């Protein structure tokens, strides 16, 4: 009786809205540039061969039991090694508190809960723009959310000066969320030199860097290179946090495999922090599903499977890069009056096209091409077959 009369529909997720419009369109030429998951050159989702191989290795008995401490700690160890580096002091001194999390989203949410419990009322600064769910995650965890300037509309590049100013002007000891590579949605990353300056300024202002690593390997095709920002902060001795996702780089979106790690000043403190993260996770969902974690830990701990993964990751990153080049070339050949350099300068899964609302609506209406209203193109949706049609359409709506 009337219990839920006051409940109003939640606002639609912008990405789900794009997918719905795409699915409802009967045109054979339609293109979905909304989804953030990798697609092959046929536009199909991919199951990596290393995942298939790992799957055949783990078929059997372990599945129905909850995850064993051994599997879990091996998974965490192998995951954090990818970001902090095998020979880093952090690993040697065991100064990390790591926990398996429900993919990147779950890792962010768990960290937000941790923040609220132990640094109540300290704000987190998110880049403007950022993945829209960051706002939901920290807001729902009741952490005060602020933004810092990141994107420069005119140059379609990084607004580095404003970014630095916002770091300097934030209250001393704030949390900052940083995308270590392949920034979503802009595809714009600071250079190594800029990361060094950012890290220095963080030391001056005693800010806490929280890295959301959702695309390791997708920016450069190389896991180590894509971890460079984190390594720079490590060299400077920061205590940091990091959310990792295997959704994109292993194509395991549906399995929700991720890792949250938080550094501490020594191993003893790391164990204390871990016990609190574990407690928070237990109250929310007890423990995460086991299948995906077994897949990832099997791949990461088997040198042959890991090598296979690294190869396949490079193939995915290279395909995306070649589609950027191809889209750019087609626009040049059409004598587009605009400068499209940013298409090839930006990195990772997304291209922040600079197209405006009207142009985006026209692309959907007249060309059956769908993307989010911020003009973000998922390069994974671009293929050898549709790239010239896309370029022609972009040219027509922007000329
Ligand atoms: N963080 C960023 C920046 C993302 O772009 C995404 C996914 O789009 C996520 C986190 C969440 O990924 P997951 O599917 O692993 O939860």
TrEMBL record:
Similarity-based family: Belongs to the class-I pyridoxal-phosphate-dependent aminotransferase family.
Which NCBIfam families does the UniProt record give? PRK09257.1
| Organism whose genome encodes this protein | Cucumis melo (Muskmelon)
One GO term (biological process): amino acid metabolic process
Q: Where is the Aminotransferase class I/classII large domain?
A: 29-393
Source taxonomy lineage?
A: Eukaryota, Viridiplantae, Streptophyta, Embryophyta, Tracheophyta
Record EC number = 2.6.1.1
The family database entries (Pfam families) matched by this protein are listed as: Aminotran_1_2
Keywords from the named record = Aminotransferase, Pyridoxal phosphate, Transferase
> One GO molecular function term?
pyridoxal phosphate binding
Task: State its role.
Answer: Important for the metabolism of amino acids and Krebs-cycle related organic acids. In plants, it is involved in nitrogen metabolism and in aspects of carbon and energy metabolism.
Highest taxon above the source species: Eukaryota
Name the InterPro entries on file.
Aminotransferase_I/II_large (IPR004839), Asp_trans (IPR000796), NHTrfase_class1_PyrdxlP-BS (IPR004838), PyrdxlP-dep_Trfase (IPR015424), PyrdxlP-dep_Trfase_major (IPR015421), PyrdxlP-dep_Trfase_small (IPR015422)
The top EC class is transferase
Further details from the record: In eukaryotes there are cytoplasmic, mitochondrial and chloroplastic isozymes.
This enzyme catalyses: L-aspartate + 2-oxoglutarate = oxaloacetate + L-glutamate
Q: Which PROSITE patterns match?
A: AA_TRANSFER_CLASS_1
Q: Which GO terms describe its cellular component?
A: mitochondrion
Listed name of the protein:
Aspartate aminotransferase
Quaternary structure note: Homodimer.
